[in-house]
Model the fold of this input.
Amino acid sequence: MKAILDDMPVRGRILAAIVLLALAAAPFVANRYLLSVLTLILYLAYVGQAWNLVMGFCGQLSLGHALYIGLGGYVAALFWLEFGVGPWIGVFAAMAVAMAFGAVIAWLGFRFGIEGVYFSLLTIAFAEFTRIGFDNMAFTGGAGGLFIPYEEKRLGEWWNLRGGQWMYYYIALLLAAGAVTLTAWLARSRLGYQWVAIREDETAARALGIDAFAVKMKAMLISSAMTAVGGVFYAFYYNTLFPSQMFDMGRSIEIIMAPIVGGLGTVFGPVVGAFVLTPMGELLIAATERLGFNAPGTKAVFYGAMLIVIIMLRPAGLWPWLARMLGVWERKP
Done:
């Protein structure tokens, strides 16, 4: 937390405290629908922050991060259904599996010099291979999906993530706040500066003695582990897992949109992006349903249009511009 406060003037600290208090108090005044939207916003802010580490700070474009969402969700769900191991313990297995996949992708990409768009294609390929595999594995439910029972008698078992809307909301809030704090700390650490050096000029970073392979590998491992935690939350919040849903390319796009719109390589960019995009997406869905226009892909087209507008008007993202406007400037690494 000190890493965040060090980069903020007093006005910024006051504003951050007000926002955090407002979010903490939201369940007391918000209805169920608004609370579900806020939960989704915080979830997307969290997974967006995880992706921001590998792309925004380290400059490695992964377009297959849905892989870690799916792995995290499925591993924790199977531990719960098959062995009765709760998600608070299952999350460690989920993180380990996601990190193993992330390590393989990173090793193949970074050891053999697969960079840029080719590295992006490698991440997409792994997500697609895994989706096809889960589609054809009987013990995961295959294409028919895996379902986590939501039993009345288990309501209130927070240690098994069997609770009500308030519990999920506060977990999402803790995840988002924790991700912001971790990102701020990493951004000011030796590793964070090495990431930025590689992002700006990998050749120069190598000349300075930075082990680019090890540094980029750490970015992938941390990012994949964090994203897997988001997958566990998603699985136990929605209680249904389908390979076509969990590993889908659209899921990866959903993850990356908030940090791009909010501001890549910034601490608060993914949070701002999530708070802008998610309500607008929900309003779009409500409007199209009311008008009887329910064409598939409408939300994706809207996100694409938003991305074009942001790139044209605020190429650095919304947060750097907002920070200057509000006088809560954040020093970008």
About this structure: The CA atoms of residues 20 and 118 lie 40 Å apart. The two ends are 17 Å apart (CA to CA).
